Fold this protein.
Amino acid sequence: MEKKLYSISAIYSNPNDIIRAAAAVRDAGYKKFDIHTPYPIHGLDGAMGLKETKLGFVTLAAAIIGAAGMISFASWVAVVDYPQVIGGKPYWSWPAFVPVTYEIAVLLAVLGTVGAMIAFFFKFPNISHPLHDTPYMKKVSADKFGVSIQADDGKFNEKVVRELLKNTGGEVDAVYYSEEFLTFKPQMFDPKFIFLLVGIALATSAGGYLYWNKVLYLPPFDWMMQQPKVKPQTMSEFYADGFGMRLPVAGTVARGFIPYPYALGAKADSVGKFLVNPLLPTKAALDLGKKKFFTYCSPCHGNFGKGDSRMNGQFPNPPTLHSDKVRTWPDGAIFHTITVGQNVMPSYQYQISREERWAIVNYIRTLQRAYNAKESDLQ
Amino acid sequence: MSAHESIIIPKKELPANIVKLGWALTVIGLVLVVLSYVTDAQRAGFNNIIGFTFLASVAVGAVFFIAIEYIAGAVWSTPFRRVLEFLGMLLVPVVLLAIPIFLNFHSLYHWSHADVVAADKVLQSKSPYLNEQFFAIRFVIYIVIWSLFYFIFRHNSLKQDKDNDQARTKKNIGLAAAFIPLLAISISLFSIDWLMSLEPHWFSTMFGVYYFTGSIVTALAVTTYFVVLLSERGYFFKGINENHYYSFGALLFGLLSFWAYIAFSQFMLIWYANLPEENFWFITRWQNGWEYVSVAIVLFHFWIPYFMLVSRPSKMKPRVLKQSAAILIAAHFLDMYWLVMPTYSASPVFSYYEIAFPILSIGLIIVVFAMQAKKYNLVPVGDPKLQRGIDFHL
């Protein structure tokens, strides 16, 4: 393919020459030209007639967005989403938000500035330029200073430009490029570039997901679970006997605990005489008794206390609660049986509180009455 | 040197109206000070501390900038370094202003009463540091450190005008390196002694930095004001441009932001922890009208000059520079008032007592500057960095 003229360039060997050349090019009225130097030269922007950069406004906008966004987010978290009283202060304690607001404003300002610079000024993803890999660029990035006046400038006339640059004392040359390899159109929204971005996003997301969730299993943060303390049923290296759980100190009783005076061997009907039901058969007491009966008693004794649960045959069948023996027992005898157990029935005094046991007794009485109703009950 | 002799204006009398204004302010200030001391010595004493710490800010801040200029090898400020070297001379009135405070010591610093200390456990444990003898000794040490370095810097700089000896710059660079850490310690302790000990139960480890940042902002504001004022009237050298102005504006902007950062950090840490032994200091400054003074400091010491100087073009405008410098000078007075006066009065007070020392201080700054400008070159003509400073480009 044919090569096209990009620019006429000139090389100078000291910084004063380049400032003079820049001023000459500026005064000649050229707009599309650039200066290349190996290091920043103070005063060059004035000599080139460059206007103040607009980049500062991007920085300002990004900083305002960052500050406003962060203070709104912090306020939302602290007031709406997860209100917590911290140090007795109001939910909306703005001084606490100042450091993070400041940091985010700075962060966004910096990222916004760099992003805008890359996108608008460097025209990313256009990664090539006619000046790349030219002898001109090699010189000006080492020890020379160069000016390059572009062929697409409105005033461009090759002969005039060559003359102008020669008069300023430069070593004049021309830069060509091939359209086959280079385009000046911005490629930010080029489908190929968009696909590349999407592909990179998908690949990193999928890779991250697979790595952290499938390859490297990380348990959730459970540091508060793993504390150097003794938990129920665990060993202790502290006590000589190795038991983590300790017995109460001899001769003491826990608050609210009333010791039960009768042991397993005591006859139910004989000790039952001395135990008096403290509960009246109120609706509340019966509801509680029903609930506890269905939880603890019915799995063996059956929903109606007939000794016919679905566990029948799995172990010695429990007796019915409607026998004459149980019906004629005092309340205390049933209470004693629940408390200490009988035959294969274990003690329930640790699962069921005293009051709940008495409530169960009341409920059993209701069941018994229901199965052996008197004539008068029907009227 | 001969090449740029035509550009530099090393010597020129200050405008007569400025000098007259300085003397007038000094005389009015002195009259008001005497009147204050005659009518209410305690109130005058507290205001004396305000004026004293303000002038110390300008003087020590100026010496700090001299040292920083040498140590950093800054060139843009070299043509204006004499302004700082003149302002450092304020160390003399600073010492003079300390005398009436020492004479009224017991009515100002309540830890200086033996019976109060005897009844107070906290003050007893602080008494090895907070006692009158050690206080006076420390003050002498600070003044000796500051003036010793100041006069050596100044001597070398003034001598260089005549002999063009570059070795003097080298000497000053070495001295500046030694001076910076000494200044850091001495100005922190100075602020603890004279300002923080007004409330001897209160403590803040950031207080020294707070006073230091306020001081350098103020010293720079005074310098900026003088530089802009005089360069507009054709002093220093021909061709002072926006690059020099921009440097003053940018430094002023950076330092006032630094002050805000330190001030807010000090407030936030105490506010967050909310410990009764620390928070009462801010609580007294948020009650009975002091809250308006607190807000005014935030506005005039930070937000207003911040937005005045935030854009690049505004940092180059002489008018904006002068205005923001004047606001910052006034804000530092307000800051000292806010630090000192809540100890004297539960709510803000304002009368001729409160304007006596600001008037005297401004008068003294002008007079001291004018007296030196009469004798010495306003531009350090022998400094090897001078030409680069004049040619300075951003």
In short: DSSP finds 17 helices and two strands in chain B. The beta strands of chain B are 8-9, 236-237. The longest strand of chain B covers residues 8-9.
